[in-house]
Amino acid sequence: MIIYCSSPSSKDETSPQKEKFIPETGKLYQTKSGYPMAVTAEDLEKGIELSSDKEAFRKFAMTGNIGLTEAGIHVYFEDIKFPNMIKIRPEGETEGFWTVQKAIEPIK
């Protein structure tokens, strides 16, 4: 089961509401390409802060502390740190990493 959260409706009841899925622990998802990922939540936060400075982000990425997600990797959702940081673990692996919630989607 996937849980969806709806945005509060505006005064105009005819405007479409945005829905955002909230992943469930232990469920299998797949990654989307090009989102930041890191072994620790702190490194992910730092990478997100540096993302507007491409040179600084590149240097930080060269340390091996942060990288970008690849599309289509099957992962299990393990934890969430609000507002939008999640910990996922690739299927068949014992260690996970942190990324942003937008980096995963239900398997189609």
Strand content: 35-45%
N- and C-termini, Cα separation: 14 Å
Mean pLDDT across residues: 83
What would you report as the Rg, rounded to the nearest angstrom? 15 Å
Count of the separate structural domains: 1
Globally, the shape reads globular
Instruction: Characterize the main sheet.
Output: 7 strands, antiparallel
- Could you tell me the number of beta strands? 9
Kindly name the structural category.
alpha+beta
| Pattern of helices and strands | EEEEHHEEEEE
Protein architecture, described:
The protein starts with a strand and ends with a strand. It has one domain. The protein has helices at residues 41-50, 54-62; strands at residues 3-6, 19-22, 28-31, 36-38, 66-68, 74-81, 85-90, 97-100, 104-106. By secondary structure, it is α+β, with helices and mostly antiparallel strands. It is globular and about 35 Å long. The protein has two helices and nine strands; from the N terminus they run ββββααβββββ. The strands form two sheets. A seven-stranded antiparallel beta sheet has the order 5-4-8-7-6-3-9. A two-stranded antiparallel ribbon has the order 1-2.
